[in-house]
Amino acid sequence: MREVVIVDGCRTAVGRRKGMFADYRSDELAAIVLDELVNRSNVEKSAVDDVILGCVTQVKEQGGNVARTAALIAEFPSHVPGVTIDRQCGSSQQAVHFGAQAIAAGDMDIIIAGGVENMTRAPMFSNMKGTEPSEKLTATYDIVNQGISAEKIASEWNLTREELDAFSYNSHQRALTAIEKGHFEEEIVLVETSDENGRLEMADIDEGPRADTTPEALAELQPVFQEGGKITAGNASQMSDGASAVLLMSREKAEELGLRPKARIIARTVVGSDPTLMLTGPIEATRQVLKKAKLTIDQIDRFEVNEAFAPVPLAWLQETGADSDKLNVNGGAIALGHPLGATGTKLLVSLVNELERSDSQYGLLAICEGMGMANATVIEKW
Predict the structure, then answer these.
(1) Tens digits of per-residue pLDDT, 235-252?
(2) Residue 4: which pLDDT band, with cuts at 50, 70 and 90?
(3) Which residues pair with residue 239 across a beta bridge?
(4) pLDDT of residue 127
(5) Cβ 14 vs Cβ 334: under 8 Å
(6) Which pick of 34, 99, 289, 354 has the fewest CB atoms within 10 Å?
(7) Locate the Thiolase C-terminal domain: which residues (predicted)?
(8) Is 172 an annotated catalytic residue?
(9) pLDDT, average across residues 185-207
(10) Per annotation, catalytic residue among 10, 55, 89, 172
């Protein structure tokens, strides 16, 4: 099997729902990232074997295979194909896995894997059009809202409201510090937008982090999903808009083109988990991917575990015994946002850059997914 490397990666800043990308078509937003990615690496668009994008809500401009339309908008030659996949919140991470598998098997040499989601223009669940789960499904499983799943996790792992809010506050503080130190500047692609008065602006900073967030303000928020519950808008991820992608190659192809990769993919896995608890998959996915990588949890220098809801990474910490100081060191989705289909490669890009910045060796990315699944990836800095 051939070695798969990450040559480069980039993303847009993440916009709040109804924020800076509210009027930006998803396919055009993704096209900006695709164009920038090959330009940064000085790779000919014609050399790309496939464009694989994750997208969860495939309606409107996110429908009709947005990977293909985005590539054409970005002026990739017509012979470069594209495919769009949905593994819920891990869609673009799965795009990386599929791309890596094709390269490792020798089917392809150069693949762009990424994702896009504009939750303003294609609201969550709008692709379901009010459809209810099959009675044959609900006869076997208790299918609930993800917020209820988060409540169940908080109860099962004995997590208090205070712990959830403290984690959320810390996410904002870490994100604000990262922005102040310029940690995201290299990975963010500048996108030209306009304000409410029509004046041109450059979208270059994530909109989600709130400098005015305080523990007291978080404590005042009311539960959203369950009366007397613990999950609020403050300890859940933000609905967001954005796009991201990474450039994958075989090591041989990178050497042939004279490119120095940023990282190599060491191991990858995907698991199914309890569809009612739904969000616990990263725990088992972490165990499996570490086994495949032949590494222990203590050998990993940085973790990115998606903050869909605060109980997810907190339960993961309890079960894995990982060092919390290595987890989401630049903030997570509670502060920075969660543009569903784009989140996987957004986090991967940030993880690669964090390994470089901290001169660390190994990073692990894990994302929980709707209906009970999770992807996990281990990378090594080049």
Answers:
(1) 999 999 999 999 999 999
(2) very high
(3) 338
(4) 94
(5) no
(6) 354
(7) 260-381
(8) no
(9) 90
(10) 89
Determine what percent of the chain is predicted with pLDDT higher than 70: 100
In DSSP terms, which residues pair with 89 in a beta bridge?
A: 87
Size of the chain, expressed as the number of residues it contains: 382
Cα angle 79, 82, 86 (rounded to 5 degrees) comes to 170
The whole model's pTM is what?
Answer: 0.98
Q: What are phi and psi of 140, to 5 degrees?
A: -105, -35
pLDDT value of position 196: 73
In sequence order, the 6+-apart residues with CB closer than 8 A to the CB of 287 are: 320
10, 55, 183, 368: the active-site residue: 368
Cβ distance 380 to 278 under 8 Å? no
